[in-house]
Amino acid sequence: MRLEGKTALITGGRQGIGRGIVDAFLSEGARVTSCGRGPRPEGLPEACHWEQADVSDPAQASALASACPSLDILVNNAGVQVEKTVVDSTDADWEAVIGVNCRGVFNMCRALIPHMATQGVIINIGSISGRHADPSMALYNASKAFVHGLTRSIAVDHGPDIRCNAICPGWINTGMLDAGFDLANDPAAARRDAITRHPVRRFGEAADVAAVAVFLASDEAAFANGQMFTVDGGMTAASPLNPGLF
């Protein structure tokens, strides 16, 4: 019960990594609110309060702040992925990806920091794509680099009252992972190749990311601030050579 007595707001808790963090925080004793653009999703634990909100809208972010006074933990997880190069990306793609992944994180931090309890915690969900560009995901890669930079700035500007860190997941079994493989000429072969590039020989699960989120939200991480925590099964630690060929 490492989060007992803590209140947490997790954006994008409908599915995937966000849902994994919701479940993990509840199991650790936190009082959890989550939000998304749609109505309350089926199967969401009854203990989790749901707010329908679009974090890319400053007014709706401010309304969330009013609904969560004295917040202890903010997890900015809501994200959008578009599989296109710079040349192929449209203005609508820009608005979708930058609107949620950049403006949404900024809106939530700006609105919630003044309402957070002393010794508050912000956890932003970045990505290894913010450091290592995945092909045909130009806007997504750039948006996650923004999240990393904003994380460091918040840690510097708002310490010691706020601790702010980012988790940088690798390839996690979600719909976003499937969409990435669908770009390949041979998705099945690309998936097999990707597995060999992970020293742990598997893709990540939402629970793997959630476990790190629990640690960062807890008092155990009291001296961690302004850092990017990579959770990728060792993929980015390896050389670009395919280990399956050796």
In short:
The protein is α/β, with parallel strands linked by helices and 246 residues long. The chain contains seven helices and seven strands; from the N terminus they run βαββαβαβαβαααβ. It has one domain (7-174, 205-232): 3-Layer(aba) Sandwich (Rossmann fold).
Could you please describe the fold and organization of this structure?
This protein is of the alpha/beta class. It has one domain (7-174, 205-232): NAD(P)-binding Rossmann-like Domain (Rossmann fold), CATH 3.40.50.720. Helices cover 38% and strands 17% of the residues. It is built from seven helices and seven strands. The protein has helices at 16-27, 58-67, 91-112, 138-158, 175-181, 187-196, 206-217, and strands at 7-11, 31-36, 49-52, 71-76, 116-125, 162-169, 228-231. A seven-stranded parallel β-sheet has the order 3-2-1-4-5-6-7, sandwiched between helices. β1, α1 and β2 form a beta-alpha-beta unit. α1 crosses α7 (206-217), α2 (58-67) packs parallel to α3 (91-112) and α3 runs parallel beside α4 (138-158). The longest helix is centred in the middle third of the chain and has 22 residues, at 91-112. The radius of gyration is 18 Å and the shape is globular. The termini are far apart. The model has no long low-confidence stretch (mean pLDDT 94).
